[in-house]
Amino acid sequence: MNRPLLTSFVALGIAAGAVSQAHAATLRVPADFPTIQAAADNAADGDTIRVGPGSWCGATITRRLTLVGEGLPVIVGCPAPVLNGVLRMGFFLPTGAASGSSFSHFAFDGRGVSNTNLTPLAFAVFARDADAVRVEQNLVLGTVQAITNARGDGWDVSHNTIDGLTVFTCDGFCGGGDAVVFQERPGAGKRGLGNAATFNLITGQIPDTLHEFEMVGILAITQDGAIIRNNRISIPDNPLADGVGQAIVITDHCCGLPASFGNSQNAVIVNNDGRGSEFSVVIELDASGGFANSIGATLRGNFGVNDINGTSGLIRNRSIHTLIEP
Fold it and tell me: 103 FRET partner, CA 20 to 30 A, in 109, 118, 156, 242?
């Protein structure tokens, strides 16, 4: 997978001790606070923020919070939070202080985002160094990179619908095109542990002008024990573009960076339907051309064209296939 430097916007903690439920508070938007950010700024570790119907700016989350939408509130692009000064985000978790947070029952509006229109959301949930985050039962429309976990362990991304994923083609910002990302940074010396993406519905469309890299439904870079199961992912081939639609990719390299990521291992990839994509499951050769990314991997029932270590095959059954260390 040949992805340019800016393709992974991801790149660029341990949960705090539990707070007794007796002391946890519920803060309501707009009844108690006029914005989600105001509620988050006034919340304590372990509090819940419940957001009512309507359109809302997102927020930067700096503590362990549970955010719940009521009536499917819509998170829209706003001047903050942003990445790189202009790329708008829904919920931003900048440090491990937000470990243990959860986000459910929101809609994120990233429809129409492009190099010529940066007003919609580019990202729905974007986190660095946060562990045990749950992102469940949300609707993401558009965006270039819906849910991003950089350097976090124990994530649960489940039962989300990500519809109309897009990408920044290389006429400005050059990157994205990934719906769910689990990754470590290059040179980190560790692997992300136990991150899971299950029961998600993902659709995307490759633009005619995407020639430099691929679009991916679930991208796992330098992971140990990633669980990817029961997802349905459709990113179909566009004959006018060189970019490829891949449902699931397990790898140790990305984004035009030097080969300094560690390999992935022990992936569990089960019962995913990638028949709407050009490739269903791709386990790439490692950066040195070997099979390290498939060490300990378990594959079962992943419908569509599977490309494992450079060998492609169409899966039509649900037999167990376990890859062991070469």
Answer: 118
CA–CA dist 184, 161 (Å, integer): 24
Q: Taking a C-beta distance cutoff of 8 angstroms, is the pair 48, 26 a contact?
A: yes
Where do we find the tokens 């270590």?
309
Q: pTM for the whole thing? A: 0.90
- The pLDDT tens digits along the chain (326 residues) read 444 433 445 443 223 333 344 579 999 999 999 999 999 999 999 999 999 999 999 999 999 999 999 999 999 999 999 999 999 999 999 999 999 999 999 999 999 999 999 999 999 999 999 999 999 999 999 999 999 999 999 999 999 999 999 999 988 899 999 999 999 876 667 899 999 999 999 999 998 989 888 899 999 999 999 999 999 999 999 999 888 999 999 999 887 666 567 899 999 999 999 999 999 999 999 888 899 999 999 999 999 999 998 777 665 444 444 443 33
d(CA 127, CA 157): 13
Q: Would you say 217 and 247 are in contact if contact means Cβ atoms under 8 Å apart?
A: yes
Nearest by Cα to 274 from 242, 309, 221, 313: 313
The two three-digit tokens of residue 98, written as one number = 């937000």
CA angle 260, 2, 248 (to 5 degrees): 90
How far, in Å, CA of 42 to CA of 54, rounded?
21
What is the Cα–Cα distance from 30 to 285, expressed in whole angstroms?
A: 50
